[in-house]
Here is the input.
Amino acid sequence: MWPSTFCAWLILARVWVFIPLPARSMQPPDQNMTEMTQMFQDFMIQYNKSYKSPEEMHHRFKVFEQNLKASRELQASELGTAQYGVTQFSDLTESEFKTMFGIPQPIEPPIVNRLAKSPKAQNPPSSCDWRKFGAITEVKKQGSCRSCWAFAAASNIEALWNIHRHSPRNVSVQELVDCTSHGCSGGYVWDAFLTVINRSGLSSSKLYPYAGKDQRCQQYRRRQVTGIEGYEILPREERDLAEIVASQGPITVLFNMKALQQYKNGVIWRTSQDCSKEHLDHFALVVGYGQVPKQHESPAKQYWIIQNSWGKRWGEKGYFRLHRGDNTCGVAMFAVTAVVKNLGARSEARVLCPR
Ligand SMILES: *[C@@H]1O[C@H](CO)[C@@H](O)[C@H](O)[C@H]1NC(C)=O
Ligand SMILES: *[C@@H]1O[C@H](CO)[C@@H](O)[C@H](O)[C@H]1NC(C)=O
Ligand SMILES: *[C@@H]1O[C@H](CO)[C@@H](O)[C@H](O)[C@H]1NC(C)=O
Ligand SMILES: *[C@@H]1O[C@H](CO)[C@@H](O)[C@H](O)[C@H]1NC(C)=O
Here is the structure.
């Protein structure tokens, strides 16, 4: 740690020179600026950041300052329990963040291989967490490829194989990226499922590892394949979705990722004014749901538990929670899941989601 601390100090000493004149006039540097510089230094160390030149560093320092301001604004208008602040993305402008991780606005997904009717909403249990079943594979990191859709689809398939076939699998996300149109420029979960169907299943991630960039679609012979029976476009009612998660397993969702750049932990709950339900740019995997108990006057807050693909150092160990019940950030608009059946069983054994 010592050398990098030292290095950051040296670079920061140089940033100081670039701080505009008013801030470094005759008086000692303003308390405020010292604090900000300290925070930026801590950020650089914590996330192992380095910049090509003092100019670049100065620019990133300004962006960092802007992001802190944005996170305070988010905090002030937060309806849930989310905390916003410094994250690994605090040196990216909002538009850089969108360009790196966002996907293009979707059109309606094609409805094919619609196998089963969605269950009639019974009373879903009050909470459900498939992580406790050991069904969820580890949090992954997409890197600088806009492949959230491929990660969400792969983790959905892996979870369903665990739950319905009791067979742990790590499937190839790179195969989805390489063999689906758009690849790293951003695609859709339903196209990923069509690719899986078209290829009669995916190779393992060991055989076809993640590269985080577009490559030629590989055809491996005698690969072990992990297939699906189809996919389902799910209803837009969050109550129905909870019932489906509890009775079938994790599902993928598409939503507006606006609040995620500055997110640290807690339950995100935004109004539709500051998190549009129409601008949907990120896919992730719902692994369960729950509620924050009633406190004094404030009512119980219901939420979704969602696995992201930005590594374990982001959010709540790679997960985040989003308010459930009023289609926050458009989360209920395009819920989709693969269909994986227990082919051996005479009738589908009922699997219970752990609370
Ligand atoms: C710096 O000062 C400005 C204006 O006085 C204030 O709005 C801001 O919150 C301060 N920043 C920090 C990090 O305290
Ligand atoms: C920090 O970043 C440098 C260069 O960007 C890299 O060589 C090094 O391995 C990183 N260290 C850690 C602990 O991630
Ligand atoms: C999947 O990957 C994880 C993490 O690398 C590993 O621990 C696990 O054993 C793998 N599972 C299979 C079935 O290969
Ligand atoms: C997969 O897609 C290709 C190209 O679109 C098509 O030619 C091929 O017939 C499809 N294969 C299957 C098994 O559907």
About this structure: The chain is about 30% helix and 15% strand.
